[in-house]
Amino acid sequence: MKNNVNRQLDENLMNKLGYQPFQGTDIGNPIKQRVAPKVRISTGNDKLVDSLEDVVKKTVKDGMTISFHHHFRNGDFVFNKVMRIIIDLGIKGLTLAPSSLTGVMNELVIEGIKKGTITNITSSGMRGSLGDFISHGNLENPVIFRSHGGRARAIENGEIKIDVAFLGVPNADRLGNANGRFGDAVFGSLGYALMDAQYADQVVLITDNVVPYPNTPASIKQTQVDYVVKIDQVGDPDKIGSGATRFTKDPKELKIAEMVNKVIVNSPYFKNDFSFQTGSGGAALAVTRYLRQSMIDAGVKASFALGGITKPTTDLLKEGLVRRVMDVQDFDKGAADSMHSNPNQQEIDASWYADADNKGAMVDQLDVVILSALEIDTKFNVNVMTGSDGIIRGAIGGHQDAATAKLTIICAPLVRGRIATVTPDVTTVVTPGDSVDVLVTEVGIAVNPKRKDLVSILSKVKGLPLYSIEELQQLAEKQVGTSKKLEYHDKVVALIEYRDGSIIDQVKQIKD
Prior knowledge:
Layout: H1 11-17, E1 48-49, H2 52-59, E2 65-67, H3 78-88, E3 94-96, H4 106-114, E4 118-123, E5 125-126, H5 128-135, E6 143-145, H6 148-157, E7 164-169, H7 193-199, E8 202-207, E9 227-230, H8 251-265, E10 274-278, H9 282-298, E11 302-309, H10 311-319, E12 322-330, H11 333-339, E13 345-347, H12 350-354, E14 368-372, E15 375-377, E16 382-383, E17 394-395, H13 399-402, E18 407-411, E19 415-416, E20 419-420, E21 422-423, E22 438-440, E23 445-447, H14 452-458, E24 466-467, H15 469-480, E25 488-497, E26 503-510
Parallel strand pairs: 1-9, 2-3, 2-7, 3-4, 4-6, 6-25, 7-8, 8-9, 10-11, 10-14, 11-12, 12-13, 14-18, 15-21, 18-22, 23-24
Antiparallel strand pairs: 5-17, 15-16, 19-20, 22-23, 25-26
GO cellular component, one term: ATP-independent citrate lyase complex
InterPro entries: Citrate_lyase_asu, NagB/RpiA_transferase-like
EC number: 2.8.3.10, 4.1.3.6
């Protein structure tokens, strides 16, 4: 079967898993039934468990679904400690359902798959050795990739049923009141972990900092927690700001960021009380620095900034250029430190942030969003999941969710090395072209033809060379030539959900 973005899907697999093909970005206003977790009644005075191994033995059984959060990113110590115990206990047939998988988790996930401990995975993304391992067909069942909002939706609707959530926190009291704001391993917002704490049947908090009861402010509350375990160290907050959330000094990326800023300030949305979100990736994050000066020069202030938050964004808050920061995740220690000192930095969960099956998500109120891409094609479809070699090496994150903004800007270099970024067809469709308004490269910009208003406005702006998307694709091809057509086996190794739960694309096992 084919879907709305002309992607061929495995009909037998779709029917087996009960999926519908992606039909378009207009989700409508359906009525959905949410689920509730089981609750083990507790009237005791203490939920502290002597060791992590003891609590794993008490909670995890064959065939369960277990979850983790990725707020520590590459500084996470909790995941590997828990998975080491689970693998060594010989537990089998688990579904792994973290908010995302970072590089430090890869080797134990691969070991768990090889030993039959892990048989299913659902996540926002994966990179490195694990992405390569999955892309070569080494997991029995296809990985289900969901956006951050899509994961929240699936948890709330019962499509992901978490049996045990293992949540690393920088502090907790003896009954499980915890937050991300204080301690040696501060990471700020617990936005993704809050979904697991609310909906998992069993919740295990892992901390290196047990504080006096009652611990406030409580992001995760004692009413949600079954066990608290103290270990030596839960994470290294200095490693939060790495990889996709690095700050760039690359001249090409800075040039792109400067052009993105010109698009924003010349758009009809740059006015008092506008709202914005910047995605991960060097150029996208750098935009904030240019936008600050433009806001000062024009006397414009923003109503709110959303999403994964960086120190440059919290600096805007401190300066009064942004009234509120709606914080689902912090991308660096500076942003995390800001949470406990500024009451206008509001922690939000992933549902409030971006769930499409909601009574109103924050992404629905966005004026401007700046997102990165691995590839974008001449239909403005965006790939942030697979490389041009067909290997899984990215994450959906909040890409699809935030692309519902009034002005969605994709920023990417024309080519990376000897690989074209602008292509006739992306390797994997993650965000549909109907959601995208402008592509910004270091060479110039392309505006989606459906946005005639933006074409008219931006064609008159100095320093913004305007091309058609086809012209940019041809310029890229002229630089690097045409790519060799990828060859795949029949096996589907991953399914890409759109934010409403339909399937927008699939990833097949790559041939060597």
